Amino acid sequence: MNKKFLFSALAGVLAVGMLTACGGAGDEPVEDPGEEDMEMEEEQDMQEEKDFDQEMEEDPAEEE
Where are the alpha helices (DSSP H) in 1-64? Predict the structure, then answer.
């Protein structure tokens, strides 16, 4: 009797766990947070290149 009840309870827990883990997707699609990071990095890189180019135009290196 005890084993039968224990197995039934464990089967119920397993079934609820499977339904929860394999449930339907949410209403909103999940956005990749890596996309935003890449865009920000590209903008920073472009700004750094512009700053570097401006510095090179303003202060050319003197040859020794």
Answer: 2-21, 33-58
